[in-house]
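User: ok so my PI wants both of these folded by tonight, can you help

Assistant: No problem, let's get them done. Here's the first:
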Amino acid sequence: MSELALPAAPRKFRPALTIGSLLLSIVVLTPVLWIFSLSLKTSRETLRPGLLPTDPQPGNYVEAWNRYGLGQLFLNSAMVTVGSVIVTVMVSMSAAYAFTKIPFKGSEALFSLLLLGVVIPPSALVVPLLIEMRYLGLYDNRAGLALVYVAFGLPISTLVFRGFFATIPGELVEAARLDGCTELQILWRIIAPMAKGAIATVVILMFLANWNEFILALVLLRNAGGFTLTLGINAQLGQYTSDYHLIAAASMIAALPVFLVYLVLQRQFERGVAEGALKS
């Protein structure tokens, strides 16, 4: 099968798009380059002007890893993020399949209700969530935090999968039913292999959101032994002074998993975006 590509822009708009893309890249990459440069500086040099370090210190990364206990923080973040992403993908795929391929009364109203989760920011529900987690015995619990991430990730994930499943011919599903397949078999053996682009999109979005999430983790986790990376790095900020070069090094290390996930799923993600654009 030939590779899908987005339609080319009209020739007269290409220079403007090129310049716009270049400016956007500069805006996005400048903070990253600044943090990387800061991570290689000495403690004294962090407060001096200048982008490039005069005496690069790659050992800052080793010192940050050991001093801040990044190994345990990585493990905590991985457990919460990977667990929540897997559950989110499985539940949202099942929900989207039901909304598109299993007609039932009130499906549109239920889907509209689910979409309310897209427009309600998590910070608006912090107090009710804290009370609920305490009542359920899930406060200061990584599983409880992962469950909250799943709840907030379901609306947008279901929306993505529903848009893809709506393009799959109903005749394909009916033929599978006539062959004796159950709904779960149709979903996981027939539909899921066709939805690699949508799955990659959801995995990248949810991994990025959950790995970098701070507010909910700050409210729902109390014991430092269970802190995620965002909380652990934030805890290193002092009231009067901080080792900014080590914090920058820790931040660069923390960003690596997101980069690697995108690198692995990049092809499927771009293909999913292209397919969605063409089908639209």
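One down. Here's the second:
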Amino acid sequence: MTSPVTPADSSAEQDGAGGQRTLVTLTDIRKSFGDLVANDGVDLTLRSGEVHALLGENGAGKSTLMRILYGLSRPDSGTISVDGRPVQLTSPGVAIAHGIGMVTQHFSLVGPMTVTENVLLTSAGLGLLDLRTGRRMVVEAAERIGVRIDPDARVDRLSVGEQQRVEILKALTHECKVLILDEPTAVLVPQDVEALFRSVRRLTDAGMGVLFISHKLGEVVGISDRVSVLRRGRIVDTVATADASIPQLAELMVGRPTLGVRRADRPNRGDDDLAAARAVSESDLGSYADVETLDVPRDRAILEIREVRLAGRSRDVLDGLDLSVHPGEIVGMAGISGNGQTELVQVLSGLRHPDAGTIEVNQTDITRASPAEVIAAGLGRITEDRYSAVVPDLSVEQNLVLEDLGRFRRGPFLDKQAVRVHATELIERYSVKAAPGDSVGSLSGGNMQKVVLARALARDPMALVVSQPTRGLDVGAAEFVHTQLLARRAAGAGVLLISEDLEELLALADRIVVVYEGRIVGELPVADATPERLGLLMAGETAA
């Protein structure tokens, strides 16, 4: 299918392609956590001057492998060589001393301190440095990656993209020759992704090796020279990126040719993850989900949010937010995390009450309703944290009836037989890999999300609020969730889909609104929406 580049090729390890030298070699790395095998005999090389992508689903073992290389975790067996010499990376400090730096999606910065002060905090091994020397180091490192940054700027006043650059600058001040970028684009708008890629290329042009960890196929194809694909803890292939296509990489990653679903009316641009997605039309959905068509008027909003305000510590976290969702549509909400999405879901769920504004579901006012009253009004909710949406110590069947206890109550007790029948039906319908009596806490993330989804949809809600529904799920579970949402739309429900994954929104939504600092700052029909236009709005640029 593609031209393999074998990591164990001795000639490649000596000189690499085009005279590149091998910076790091991982050989037969194994790591288990109890019965879970995270890395199962992994071989990997990184050469100077290349971006080597490590691609795999969530849970494939990518982050574990990089934690081992950065000294955050010890392998059970296997060897690591840097510049041809075996090393024991017992801590991040040891890894840094060997020229290995790492930047994750979760930054380790001190907000009230300046850029220079943050860099100096990690420079203890360089001796006692004054601020003047620190500023010079920051400027020189910034020049290496082709960016400008104020050494005296407070970090908490920088954009997310600028904060990520500070993390890269920290690594560069240690003369790192290997830079690990673990899911670096997860928190970035598209414009910041482009800037990151330009900086990465400047580093590899200067001879550095970059390990780029991702599950986003379009980005991997756009930035890497080679790709190693991890599946279930093993490298299934290493290929030259120029010889690979997105559908081929998708098949390597998940073991089948398609990656997720998209609506049949969505264009296939061929350069992003939608290129590997299976197109589904409304006629395809009837056999996938047992959904009855809802008897609701299509000419008025099923969910109406008007001028909703919610005070935060220093500013309103919801600042006059207006939004409507009509029957038979999916409204996507894009935005960088921390712009009011979590608080909006809490308000819509009845967990918090707004300081001003109104909320209606099918013309029923739920502004100050309790969670039970919200459910009774016909609003289903799937929150961003599936672990807080279940009671881990209770069984699957008990969790499935938590929002509908009245239906199964017989006097002071629950009708256990009725609960079991109901749970068995939902387990079968939603393909939950568990028995009714199993503890929910013992389930995988995907099966736990299916329990949350089944519970919310069992009441046939007229409106659905769904937040980050596929975060942390494998491809199969994510595809199931997406198809269920499309089936609900086809049945006439109105869906508010809140997601930080723009490709998810572009695959499913009818129109996309963008939230910034608690306000809707823009709305685009999906036909006009591009990652670039959405990214400008997400960054607070209103002229998109």
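The radius of gyration is 25 Å. Confidence is low (pLDDT under 50) at residues 1-14, 286-291. Good luck tonight!
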